[in-house]
Design brief:
Rossmann fold; seven-stranded parallel β-sheet; 9 helices; NADP; oxidoreductase activity, acting on the CH-OH group of donors, NAD or NADP as acceptor; NAD(P)-bd_dom_sf; Sc_DH/Rdtase_CS
Amino acid sequence: MPSYLITGASRGIGLIIVHKSVNPENLVYALVRNLDTAQRIEALSEWGNIRVVKGDITDPDALKIVAEEVSKGNNGKLDVLINNAAYIDRDSASVPLTEFHGKENLLEKVLLETVKSFFIYFEMGAVIHTINAFLPLLQAGEAKKVITLSTGLADPDFSQQTGYYLSAPYSISKAATNMVITKYSVQFKKDGFIFVAISPGLVDTVGDQEISSEELAGYQVMLEGFRKIKPTFEGAISPEESVKAQLAVIDRLTVKDTGAFLSHHGNKEWL
């Protein structure tokens, strides 16, 4: 029975990954920071092979406890780790880097707090902590797949082609996380591991939440840029559509793909 562990599993893309991964042939561990947010996961428990585990991915000690729990429940093995949990600072997404000129306080907040606190400690640091915590279990597993969600915005060529200059802190942090995956892939390729960063595409994760006029304007700028390379692009896809495509890519990955940065199409087509 293939085993999966998915971080950030209580909502959004993570919840859909759990939903699409759960079937009678898989054992799925859904990692959440707060059990109070896990009701929607528990609603999927009719299959009987989903386990909700509590842990903070920024806390190495908490992850060690989760790894021990997973190890006990699955004979010391894990096949697939999906690093989905991430942080997006919506306030800075629509702010171009030029806006920080003469606004040193804002620059400090966004580039130090967002990139340092959430990139070093949450984004990159948490990915490293999570991978390290589950490496022994993955070593004993069959698939040895470590998937980390990224974004096409971390591709310099994509930014050049679309002319999209917003979402800078988010893009910077994901680009660095891609390099983390590269380093792991080089170190563990000889052991048959598959480390891959995958972009889910432009996904509607906002849903019914209110968005500000600045966010809406930024979204329009993004669409205009994206349509430079794909004139027929209609906008964000649903989490369900994205996850279905991602899982199809993940299923067919082999060792030759390790270290790759791919889209939900399995190539460099980010939209």
